[in-house]
Write a structure and sequence with these properties.
The complex is a heterodimer of chains A (202) and B (500). With 202 residues, chain A is an all-alpha fold. In chain A, 57% of the residues lie in helices and 0% in strands. Chain A has two domains: 64 residues, no CATH class; 102 residues, no CATH class. Chain B contains 16 helices and 21 strands. Classes of the chains: A mainly alpha (202), B alpha/beta (500).
Chain lengths: 202, 500
């Protein structure tokens, strides 16, 4: 057996690996080293030639495991740190992050969800409908859940009527310039959100 | 195989076949359960094919009925109550053991029913399953749309199964493997998945496939061999039209293009992006991509067409390992594309595999350096312990002794790919409760059927590498956390299943 105690070691890498927490960050020493490698073309060669002396000269401290890793790397490995710098200089790079129009759409959807769900918030059972086993109910039940069923996958006429009668307030709001598909999406999101909420309470 | 006329007539009025999805994304923590419900695309294709031929399908998705004890056999049997005379289970490798346990219990209770197994889980071990488990009557291999219809035609007509291509079955007590069914070459001609049969609002993930199969020969991967190393592509217009349908009918606004070969070539990708954009759908999408098949022009077009999340199989930071596994690109190509992607897309995932039999510590450290580097770029790094899936070339190589050494079963060291949902994870440790122990005993008793759960030389090849990953923050260090409050399984040598 190795020195490792099998009963205290396990793996959970490709899936969430700790209760609600992000993996540990990179150590400050390693982070600083990566930064300097990206900025200094000659540092990689110095590190490969004499890691300890180069780190000392740079005023950097690594953990024993990080230092061990360094001993196995060649100049080519270390020069990968500059790929991001090279990439950043490419012209016309789109801004990273969620585009503002997407954020706006999300905001609108949230606002509409609230409006949709609010009238039923006090009555979770109203939303539950038929318990199923993944089987689509074969008939329409007199609950909002079934209404959602109808809206989502049955009669287009029913969908239109529901939207017209029940959601008039939302559909006519001037600050929600939505097309039909977006309105259906709003309803879908609202029902799903509400069902998840109910499921959590259950 | 002939169904009892009495049984058949009794159920004819209701359903002809029950199809059961046994694929779950289910992770148990000490204080909660994480579930992610994805539309069971494979089964939905089968439902459409069967309905097109007039069969009435009773579709059951176990994702929606897991309850508090999803892996309690009685609970599962209750879920299967009132099923049709033919019951088909679909599973992947991780839930193959549990699905077989369910099939055994189900058949014991309903010996008159025909049990069919499908999905990637039983692929490559069909003969062993039929040899060892009388509960399984038929196994569908490969694409199921046409096979399941032929099979139903034969079963309901009381014909023998010898003429049904693409199945394995038992005849006179012995497994019979029928010839394979030719691949479907016109995917556009298939009816869309039967989305109308699901409560779509109950799901969180909406997958879509634009292709089937992969022509690459990565030695660790089961996808390409399952699809005979051939990729078949849908037309761009077909894919976009399906996305439009899903958006307009169900409000799906985020898609996961889950096929491995979505980024098959530049022209098709640019055409897809242009077509989707011109459709004017306010949707976003995630996809898998391949390092050697993308370039800056394509990545920009993807982002412009609504792609917000790209996932890459980087696998290793060592060129020697990448060559050994026939990945088809270099470590430096990977870092170049990952750097570029990290600046274009809000989310980028990089999957790594560690624990190859030929992965030296030098190779491993090169991978770890890339993991650290990519993480510093804001990329989500997902290291995964190698799983020796039975369809893969690397499993064949280990089986034939190419690398020496042994495969052993360490229940507390489950490769991510085959996490079963029976484990409890707490502070980075996996515990197996006494009530879930029978599943792991079952796996230990059948290493030939479940090699994906085994590890190659865990003491020298796995534990030291795991220690490094822990030290660098890729796995929580159990030794720095308080002791778990539930029993940890004793991982003794007697449970090892040695294979050369």
């Amino acid at each position: 057996m190795s020195d490792y105690d099998s009963s205290s070691l396990t793996i959970v890498g490709g899936r969430p690996n700790e209760e609600g927490k992000e993996p540990s960050a990179i150590s400050p020493g390693l982070q600083a080293l990566l930064q300097r490698l990206a900025e200094s073309p000659s540092l990689a060669r110095d590190l490969v030639a004499d890691p300890e002396e180069t780190l000392a000269a740079e005023g950097l401290t690594l953990t024993p495991t990080e230092l061990a890793m360094l001993h196995y790397l060649d100049v080519g490995d270390l020069e990968q740190t500059r790929d991001m710098t090279r990439g950043a200089t490419r012209s016309a790079m789109p801004t990273k992050g969620i585009p503002s129009e997407v954020e706006e759409e999300t905001r609108r959807r949230l606002a509409a969800q609230l409006e949709l769900v609010a009238p039923f918030a006090g009555d979770p059972d109203f939303y539950m409908g038929e318990r199923t086993r993944g089987i689509r109910p074969m008939s329409i039940y007199p609950t909002p859940f079934a209404v959602a069923e109808a809206l989502l996958r049955t009669s287009r006429d029913f969908r239109t009527a529901f939207l017209a009668d029940s959601q008039q307030a939302i559909l006519t709001r001037p600050d929600l310039p939505l097309n039909d598909a977006e309105r259906q999406a709003l309803l879908f999101e609202a029902v799903r959100s509400r069902l998840e909420q109910v499921a959590r309470h259950a | 195989m002939k169904l009892s006329a009495v049984v058949w007539n009794k159920w004819r009025a209701m359903h002809d076949i029950t199809l059961v999805n046994m694929n779950l994304l289910y992770i148990v923590y000490a204080d909660r359960v994480d579930r992610e419900l994805h539309v069971p695309l494979g089964l939905l294709y089968l439902v459409s094919a069967l309905e097109e031929h007039g069969y009435r399908v009773d579709l059951r998705d176990y994702q929606l009925a897991t309850g508090e004890s999803p892996f309690d056999l009685e609970h599962t049997l209750a879920f299967l109550e009132d099923s049709a005379p033919i019951v088909g289970f679909s599973c992947m490798a991780n839930l193959l053991p549990y699905t077989l346990l369910v099939a055994q219990a189900f058949k014991a209770r309903h010996p008159e029913k025909t049990v069919v197994l499908g999905g990637t889980g039983p692929t490559a071990v069909e003969g062993d399953i039929l040899q060892k488990f009388d509960a399984v009557d038929v196994i569908v291999r490969g694409e199921g749309e046409r096979t399941i219809v032929d099979l139903m035609d034969a079963l309901t007509a009381g014909r023998g199964l010898h003429s049904v291509a693409g199945i394995s079955y038992r005849s006179n007590g012995s497994p019979v493997e029928n010839p394979p069914r030719p691949r479907i070459t016109d995917l556009d001609a298939l009816p869309w998945p039967a989305y109308h049969r699901l409560e779509m609002a109950a799901y969180q993930g909406y997958g879509l496939v634009t292709s089937r199969g992969c022509p690459y020969r990565c030695t660790f991967c089961s996808v390409a061999p399952i699809w005979e190393h051939q990729a078949v592509l849908r037309s761009v217009q077909s894919v976009v039209t399906e996305m439009q349908h899903l958006f307009e009918t169900y409000g799906v606004a985020m898609f996961l293009l889950q096929d491995e070969y979505f980024v098959s070539d530049k022209a098709r990708m640019l055409d897809f992006c242009a077509t989707l954009k011109s459709a004017g759908l306010p949707v976003h999408w995630k996809c898998f991509a391949r390092i050697n098949l993308v370039n800056e022009e394509m990545l920009r077009a993807m982002a412009d067409a609504g792609c917000v999340h790209v996932r890459y199989g980087v696998e290793s930071g060592s060129d020697a390992v990448l060559r050994q596994v026939a990945k088809g690109f270099s470590a430096h190509q990977a870092s170049d594309i990952i750097a570029l992607s990290a600046q274009i897309f809000p989310e980028v995932d990089a999957f790594f595999i560690w624990g190859f039999p030929f992965e030296t510590m030098a190779d491993f450290y090169k991978s770890v350096f890339q993991m650290v580097l990519f993480r510093s770029w804001g990329v989500r790094v997902l290291p995964c312990l190698l799983s020796f899936l039975p369809q893969t070339a690397i499993y064949h190589d280990v089986w034939t002794g190419r690398y020496g050494g042994t495969l052993r079963f360490r229940p507390g060291l489950t490769p991510e790919y085959v996490a079963t949902g029976h484990e409890t994870s707490s502070a980075g440790r996996i515990a197996i409760s006494a009530e879930q122990q029978p599943l792991f005993d079952f796996i230990a008793a059948h290493p030939d059927l479940f090699p994906g759960f085994l590890q190659w030389e865990p003491e020298t090849n796995v534990w030291p590498k795991l220690g490094v990953l822990r030290d660098l923050g890729f796995y929580p260090d159990a030794r720095s956390t308080s002791e778990a409050t539930f029993p940890i399984r004793d991982d003794d040598e007697t449970k090892d299943q040695a294979r050369t």
